[in-house]
Amino acid sequence: MNYKWRALALLWVAFFLQQGTRQIFGATLTSIQGSLGASAAAIGAVATVFTFAYGLSVPFAGAAADLFNRKWMVVSGVFVFCLGIFASGFVASLGLMVVSYGILNGFGQSFYYPSATSIIGELHKETRATALSILQMGLYAGIIGCSAASGWLAESGAEGWRVPFKVFGGIGILWAVVMAFGLRNGERKFKEFHSPTQDSNSNSKPTLKEAFKVFVGNPSALLLAAGLGMMIYVDVGFKTWMPSHLSESFGVAKGSAALNAVLWHYIGAFVGVTLGGRISDKLAKTRPSVRMETNIAGLALAVPFIVWMAYAPSLLACGIAMALFGVFRGVYDSNLMASLFDLIPQRYHASGAGLMLSCAFVFGSTSPVVLGLVKDAFSSTAALASLAAFYIVGAVVIAIARRRQYFRS
Predict the structure, then answer these.
(1) Sequence-separated (6 or more) residues with CB below 8 Å from residue 207
(2) 256, 377: one domain
(3) How many domains does the chain divide into?
(4) pTM
(5) Same domain? 215 vs 170
(6) HSE on the CB side for 156, CA within 13 Å?
(7) Which range marks the domain in which residue 352 is found?
(8) Are residues 220 and 326 both part of a single domain?
């Protein structure tokens, strides 16, 4: 097999594990809560710490990807987050779960994506879009596959929730070793960017400080980041609490609840991201604002289906609502980074994306614990329904960005 495709295969499995292991916690949340004797708000805080740690680390990980050897950034990132996942299967207290799953896992995961996509970009010059699309399939497969497997493994006994952490964490540690031997060292080295003869001209690598000034100096980019923050808040809260909602509201077994909580949503998202991308690409040449308009439409049109999902009277109705919610979430996703890239110079795209993700994930990290508080005070139905308000706010702030960027007189 040609090396560029072999490298993609290695990175695909790592992406499957990165995205899939995020779902183990939500799929086994009810069992963990009972085993560790935690309240809904306290157990939600674990997911909050993970998301916050990821958001805090990712801009520095993005900058490091342009400076250090990307192979070892990927390998070390996968090793660290899988070590955190593996250790989570042995914890005896909520505090230790915060350290292993929240901090260690969140920090390690932040180093994968910037470096992995950079490797793919270097290797796949003529097949870049195809390669990145294949990589994206790892996200959907990981979320669906690990959710289902985790739910079923968790049913093996009172402490069965520990099994998926040990299994997938152990597999990931071994996979890091496989990548260490299977991936080649890239051509770019740290010294390349610190040559004594290198000046700060337009061909030099941008610093995180420069990218920060460009990003913060563009109000429309900040508004896009705010809109993404609303979307991440909903996404993290939905994936954390939906499995337990299905179990409590419809009596669905843990394994089936974990699968149903993500399967229909991501099938819908696949349809939405495909349609949204194709339509906006066709219209973008004659209507530059169409990418933001696609973002707005995706968030706004998903709102009624989020509410329907929360108040659905049956599992079938809830599944249909989740699928339609997923379609419009996919429409938003289709132009997520494309909208940002229209606003900032190309040399700042990677660092700008890292900063945007950081802002969004730091804000979105509050969702699991806030929804846990709402669930304790009212119900899981009320907690999930409250997510609709954040999609509304997201659509509004992106609409402001659109008007400011393209229609300001």
Answers:
(1) 63
(2) yes
(3) 2
(4) 0.72
(5) no
(6) 11
(7) 205-409
(8) yes
Range 249-255 contact pairs with CB under 8 angstroms and sequence separation of 24 or more: 249/318, 249/380, 249/381, 250/314, 250/315, 250/318, 252/315, 253/151, 253/155, 254/27, 254/28, 254/30, 254/31, 254/151, 254/152, 254/154, 254/155, 255/148, 255/151, 255/152, 255/154, 255/155
- Model confidence at 376, pLDDT cuts 50, 70, 90, reads confident
- CATH number for 24: 1.20.1250.20
In this prediction, residue 66 carries a pLDDT of 63
- Alpha-helix residue ranges (DSSP H) falling in 66-123: 70-88, 94-97, 105-110, 112-123
**Is 195 inside any structural domain?**
no
Same-domain status, 127 and 212: no
**Helix, strand, coil proportions of the chain in percent (round to 5)?**
80, 0, 20
Does residue 126 carry a pLDDT above 80?
Answer: no
Q: What tokens appear for 68 in the block? A: 């250090």
Helices 29-36 and 3-27 cross at an angle (nearest 10°) of 50
Which uninterrupted H or E stretch holds 258? helix 254-283
Task: Tell me, yes or no, whether 165 and 216 share the same domain.
Answer: no
- Position 194 in a domain: no
Flag whether 260 is in a domain: yes
Q: How far apart are CA 111 and CA 82, in angstroms?
A: 12
Residues 6+ apart with CB under 8 A from 299: 227, 230, 231, 328, 332, 391, 392, 394, 395, 398
Q: Which amino acid is at 112?
A: Y
pLDDT in tens, 187-242: 444 344 343 334 444 455 666 677 777 777 888 888 988 999 999 999 888 888 88
Within this chain, do residues 215 and 283 fall inside the same structural domain, yes or no?
yes
My answer on whether 235 and 289 are in the same domain is yes
Kindly report, residue by residue over 147-194, the tens digit of the pLDDT: 778 777 777 666 788 888 999 999 999 999 999 998 887 644 434 434
DSSP-assigned letter for residue 201: S
Q: Is the same domain home to 268 and 364?
A: yes
